[in-house]
């Protein structure tokens, strides 16, 4: 056993060179055959992941921009709707005021017309009353005097009578 230990400890230089050359040759072959394609695939995968992340970030920024744009449009739409409602309210109020003014004018005209009609009816009633009183007075006077008065005399008598009544 002691001999085997000594042999393992002292390896001939040729064997050592052979092992080192074999190891280096194996490393070169592994680099060409395994590590090269493996690192190429890993680099491609890393590039694809980075590209996907960049695309996702860009899409996220685009989505945020789109959300902001939609919010602005919604706000503008709300403002336009509020303005339209305010304009409609003002228009309705103006139209209401106009209708009320027209109705008030019409009522005032009707009131004026009614007053004029009332004055006219009063005058007509007074004239009719005067005529009736005159006819009645003439009839009474005719019966009292037993003679017929002329129309002018009758009117003069009536006017004098009415003047007396108006003074009293």
UniProtKB/TrEMBL annotation:
It comes from Fructobacillus durionis. Residues 53-62 have a biased composition (Basic and acidic residues). It is found in: Cell membrane; Endomembrane system. F-type ATPases have 2 components, F(1) - the catalytic core - and F(0) - the membrane proton channel. F(1) has five subunits: alpha(3), beta(3), gamma(1), delta(1), epsilon(1). F(0) has three main subunits: a(1), b(2) and c(10-14). The alpha and beta chains form an alternating ring which encloses part of the gamma chain. F(1) is attached to F(0) by a central stalk formed by the gamma and epsilon chains, while a peripheral stalk is formed by the delta and b chains. This is ATP synthase subunit b. It comes from the Bacteria. Residues 77-92 have a biased composition (Polar residues). The chain crosses the membrane at residues 12-30. The keyword Transmembrane helix applies. Residues 53-92 are annotated as: Disordered. Belongs to the ATPase B chain family. InterPro entries: ATP_synth_b/b'su_bac/chlpt, ATP_synth_F0_bsu_bac, ATP_synthase_B_chain. GO terms for molecular function: proton-transporting ATP synthase activity, rotational mechanism; proton-transporting ATPase activity, rotational mechanism. NCBIfam families: ATP_synt_b (TIGR01144). The keyword Glycoprotein does not apply. One of its GO terms (cellular component) is plasma membrane. Component of the F(0) channel, it forms part of the peripheral stalk, linking F(1) to F(0). F(1)F(0) ATP synthase produces ATP from ADP in the presence of a proton or sodium gradient. F-type ATPases consist of two structural domains, F(1) containing the extramembraneous catalytic core and F(0) containing the membrane proton channel, linked together by a central stalk and a peripheral stalk. During catalysis, ATP synthesis in the catalytic domain of F(1) is coupled via a rotary mechanism of the central stalk subunits to proton translocation. It is a single-pass membrane protein. Keywords: ATP synthesis, Cell membrane, CF(0), Hydrogen ion transport, Ion transport, Membrane, Transmembrane, Transmembrane helix, Transport.
């Amino acid at each position: 056993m002691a001999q085997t230990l000594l042999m393992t400890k002292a390896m001939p230089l040729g064997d050592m060179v052979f092992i080192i050359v074999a190891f280096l040759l194996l490393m070169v072959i592994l680099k060409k055959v395994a590590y090269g394609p493996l690192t190429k695939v890993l680099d491609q995968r890393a590039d694809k992941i980075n590209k996907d992340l960049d695309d996702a970030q860009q899409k996220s920024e685009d989505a945020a921009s789109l959300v902001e744009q939609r919010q602005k449009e919604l706000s503008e739409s709300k403002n336009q709707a509020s303005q339209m409602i305010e304009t409609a309210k003002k228009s309705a109020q103006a139209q209401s005021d106009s209708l009320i003014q027209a109705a008030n004018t019409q009522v005032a005209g009707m009131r004026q017309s009614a007053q004029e009609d009332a004055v006219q009816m009063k005058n007509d009633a007074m004239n009719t009353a005067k005529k009736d009183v005159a006819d009645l007075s003439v009839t009474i006077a005719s019966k009292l005097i037993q003679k017929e008065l002329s129309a002018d005399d009758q009117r003069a008598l009536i006017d004098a009578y009415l003047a007396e009544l108006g003074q009293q």
